[in-house]
Design a protein that fits this description.
It is built from 19 helices and no strands. By secondary structure, the protein is mostly helical. The longest helix has 35 residues. The radius of gyration is 23 Å and the shape is globular.
């Protein structure tokens, strides 16, 4: 019988592969920047779609972030199936088109609810760009060049948290909020043409079936549950309000039904059977608590700088950048250490750094030193970089070859869902705290419109109101800090001895994580 010939790849990175890497990096830049660029715009959305005197509740505008991350979580498990069904190149072009069209639609939004809807549409394209990009890189590079090419793809991942808030702040300050979305139009057009010309055509080879029922249960369930949570401020914190309890109850029922359903099909949307693997189960719980606390808490920082300290959007973005710099420094170090030391001896150090930073933020006041705040954000970034990579590595390390793609999908979706939950819950906390402090919201409004100051007793009233507003932010950080402390419970069960990998158990070749 004739042997199948293994594709031969050159040892060096040639021009053809670099062209393909350029396509993938361009897509990654659009997707990753858009996750962070909107963070500094939330105070702007409050007044643009509301007014200075009556801004839209923070928990409401935070749905521009929550809806996007939920949309990402929805589309990630579909990507592998759709790439086999329709072809990688065709799907990548579709993803760029959806993301670009969604970006333009976001710029045309005339209400906050319209913007939230268009962010869902944008997320459907954005969620496919990264996993598809990794698949394309795998096929074009071959195993011997993957490390070097993944380092190229890692650049936008590391720079996104630094440049996103700065770019968003600069565009809002010097153009308008519309441009944080419109800037994707020319980039998307170039990426479409570039991808069409450079990417090789591939033949669709339909493989496993897709779990449409699982998707119809999980995504609406999460959205309804979080909608109920975010409705609390409008209902005065009353859990008995139908809008709150009905949404939450139906959401929980759908999610529980999904858990029951997930054990039935051969290829479920999320393979919960993998939780039999202790490492994966512990890592996933740790990832959920960590991501909810970190990403939910981090969202408040640019808002504090703008609303309490009166900074412009650009300055707020610059002040948040040290967090991304810290993560950029420790992420590659942690990636190296995890090959030499058990993850249970690395992650606790990262979490300690995050805990120090988060508890420091529970003490913020209306005049806290910027040097202290920048230092706290930098320390949190160091902790984040030392936590994320080791958690992903230990979760996947003890899985076998054929389980890695499903395990990676499970982890990525957990991170996106946790971010959505953290943003929704902590923004609700902040909204309630601000509403319970009578001078806080008028003082924030006075930062933009000095005539409002006369309604609360002039400069003295504004100063007192900003003190109350800072207290609201500090109290909200207590929730995030408490979640970080809870994370130490599952961290205790992470392996403290180096464990053998099972990636080679099946075929002798470890696969690339593509989701």
């Amino acid at each position: 019988m004739a042997m199948l010939k293994t594709p031969e790849y050159p040892e060096q990175i040639d021009a053809a592969v670099l062209k393909i890497a350029g396509v993938v990096v361009l897509g990654a830049i659009m997707s990753i920047l858009d996750i962070t660029v909107v963070n500094v715009a939330l105070p702007t959305f409050q007044t643009v779609f509301g007014s200075v005197d009556q801004p839209i509740a923070y928990s409401h505008v935070a749905w521009t972030v929550t809806a996007y991350t939920l949309s990402l979580a929805t589309v990630i498990p579909m990507t592998g199936w759709a790439a086999d069904r329709f072809g990688t190149k065709r799907l990548y072009l579709t993803a760029i088109g959806l993301f670009t069209a969604g970006s333009v639609l976001c710029a045309t939004a005339s209400s906050i609810n319209m913007l939230i809807l268009f962010r869902v549409f944008q997320g459907l394209g954005g969620g496919m760009l990264m996993p598809l990009g990794m698949t394309i890189m795998t096929r074009s590079a071959g195993p011997k060049r993957m490390g070097r090419l993944m380092a190229i793809l890692g650049v936008p991942m590391l720079l996104g948290p630094i440049l996103g808030p700065i770019l968003g702040g600069w565009l809002i300050e010097h153009a308008s909020w519309h441009w944080i979305f419109l800037i994707n139009a020319p980039i998307g057009a170039v990426a479409l043409v570039y991808a069409f010309v450079v990417l090789p055509s591939d033949t669709p080879e339909p493989s496993e079936s897709f779990d449409f029922l699982g998707m119809l249960l999980l995504s609406p369930g999460l959205a309804l549950f979080l909608f109920g949570v975010s409705s609390l401020p409008q209902e005065g914190g009353d859990f008995t309000a139908p809008r709150v309890w009905v949404s939450m109850l139906v959401g929980v029922a759908l999610m529980l039904t999904f858990v029951w359903h997930a054990f039935r099909p051969e290829h479920p949307l999320l393979d919960l059977r993998l939780f039999k693997n202790r490492n994966l189960a512990v890592s996933t719980i740790t990832m959920f608590l960590f991501a909810a606390a970190f990403f939910g808490g981090l969202l408040l920082v640019p808002t504090y700088f703008q609303e309490v300290r009166g900074e412009s959007t650009l300055h707020a973005g610059l002040l948040v950048a040290p967090q991304g710099i810290g993560a950029m420094l420790t992420m590659p170090i942690a990636g190296t250490l995890v090959d030499r030391f058990p993850v249970g001896r690395i992650v606790p150090f990262g979490l300690v750094l995050i805990t120090v930073g988060m508890f420091g933020l529970t003490q913020i006041e209306a005049d806290t030193s910027y040097k202290l705040l920048i230092g706290l954000l930098f320390v949190m970034g160091l902790g984040m970089g030392a936590t994320m990579m080791p958690l992903f590595t230990t979760a996947l390390k003890t899985l076998t070859h054929h389980e890695v793609a499903r395990g990676s999908t499970l982890l990525n979706i957990t991170q996106q869902i946790a971010s959505s939950v953290g943003v929704a819950v902590i923004s609700v906390m902040l909204t309630n705290q601000l509403k319970n402090k009578p001078l806080a919201l008028p003082a924030i409004a006075a930062q933009r419109d000095p005539t409002v100051a006369n309604q609360i007793g002039g400069a003295a009233g504004v100063a007192k109101g900003l003190v109350q507003a800072a207290e609201a932010f500090a109290n909200s950080y207590w929730l995030a800090a408490s979640l970080v402390l809870l994370t130490f419970i599952p961290v205790y069960f992470l392996p403290r001895k180096q464990e053998a990998t099972h990636l080679l158990d099946d075929d002798g070749v470890p696969p690339l994580v593509v989701h």
